[in-house]
Amino acid sequence: LKLFYNHVETQKLDIEKLLGLFNYVIFLYRFDVLNAFISWKKAYETNIWSSLAEGWKENRSYKIEWDLQQYKDYYERYTRRYANILNIFKRDDNKKKAVICYEHLERCKNKYEYVQNILQDSGMDKNIMSLPNSTEYEVDPVYKQALPVSLEENFTNKKDFLRDYHLIEGISFYQPDLG
């Protein structure tokens, strides 16, 4: 079961009960909240949520409008939601758990092996996620939809973004307390 951060609130899910249904739990988070915001807003506006979706290549250079307050609100929701989920995640000592940072996963050449190693290090069954054969592995499972550009190039109003950037430097990353 994969939940996006907003599913918990919009679907009114009881995350504690839901997590109780599974033997294994993987906590995937994004360290770079600003890029998560950019990605979310582009997906929301284009309705293209995956590189498997039709038309995703045509929207790789899609630009969004920068709004400082909208970003601050996103950051607050993002960190609050993940902190709540992580608190529940940490309370259950009987469950096998793994934590994966999206940015670390994204940089790996073989993402399947990276995830499988994390699962094994967490005491999970190594067969929980089988490695695909060579014909199945032709497509990177974590293929960034956006073109690699500087942050300001994601915005239609890049001057506004550059003006505001110093105001968000302290709130552009999220490091969960895994202790």
How would you describe the overall organization of this protein?
The mean pLDDT is 82. The protein starts with 6 loop residues before the first helix and ends in an 11-residue tail after the last helix. It contains seven helices and two strands. The chain is mainly α.
Provide a compact summary of the structure:
The protein has helices at 7-10, 15-20, 33-46, 68-91, 102-107, 111-121, 158-168; strands at residues 24-29, 96-101. It has 179 residues and is mostly helical. 11% of the residues are buried.
List the helices and strands and how they pair.
Blueprint (H helix, E strand, L loop, with lengths): L6 H4 L4 H6 L3 E6 L3 H14 L21 H24 L4 E6 H6 L3 H11 L36 H11 L11
Overall 3D form: globular
Q: How much β-strand is present in the residues?
A: 5-15%
Number of strands: 2
The averaged pLDDT comes out at 82
Unreliable stretches, pLDDT < 50, 5 or more residues?
Answer: none
Strand order of the largest sheet: 1-2
Percent helix, as a range, is 40-55%
Largest sheet entry: 2 strands, parallel
Rg, Cα atoms, Å: 18 Å
The end-to-end distance, rounded to whole angstroms, is: 25 Å
Structural class: mainly alpha
